[in-house]
Input
Amino acid sequence: MSRPDNPAMMDDASRGPRGPLALVAVAALALVFFASFIALGTWQVHRLHWKHALIARVDQRVHAPVVDAPGPAQWAHLTADADEYRHVRLSGTYLPDRQTLVWASTELGNGYWVMTPLRLADGSVVLVNRGFVPAEECSPDASCLVPPGGATTITGLLRMSQTWAFLRHNDPAHGRWYTRDVQAIAAARGLTDVAPYFVDADAAPTDATGSAASWPQGGLTVIHFPDNHLVYLITWYLLALMVAAASVHVGRVEYRLRRDAQRKAAASSAQAPSSPP
Output
């Protein structure tokens, strides 16, 4: 009888079948992994549908007609899912002495977002991100880039307060800002009755020569949502399939080992000499 060439088959042939407790443990472990991978894959399916719906909603908001910015009566009900990236309009007077520069990295290079409070007719305040300015154009004390005086009307995208930045923390005492944290900026600048959102101003219209207005440059909001859920769900379902395939293989091996063991036992019983009477 020829010996099997596959080392794995040789290992299987050299041992007997696993005991019941070992098989139960292997089966339980496989079931846990299989169920976990299926659950993770299914969760990614739901996340995929949610992300696509979110992208569609945001796209609709960005291109919708401009509406008035939410007033104080609506502030408590605002959420990122329902309101962020709405195209809004607001009118008021800028407070240039309360201006804040927030570090930014954009397609135009490194520099600052120019955050200027706008006091509305009802006395409330909305922080307006007037746009980006390169670092060499303005010092961090925000004494440059004076906003237009008098009553001003702006349009832009409503953004929710940002409180987190990777590996960087705001340092209000030294005027170092890395996030557009509305509450923190308002506290540092002594502002009250401040909206819980800020507005990314639209790009300024071009002048008669077709040149863009001077700094700061608005209209640079990046609307991008990572959408890797399809890759993730395929990965989790493939892992579940691999666990199922491995379980089937182990089951077939154990079945073959038990069958061979039974045949050997039957052959040994048939060859054993009869006991004398």
In short: The CA atoms of residues 60 and 245 lie 45 Å apart. Strands lie at 67-68, 87-94, 100-106, 109-120, 125-134, 151-160, 194-201. Residues 21-66+225-251 form one domain. The first strand starts at residue 67 and ends at 68.
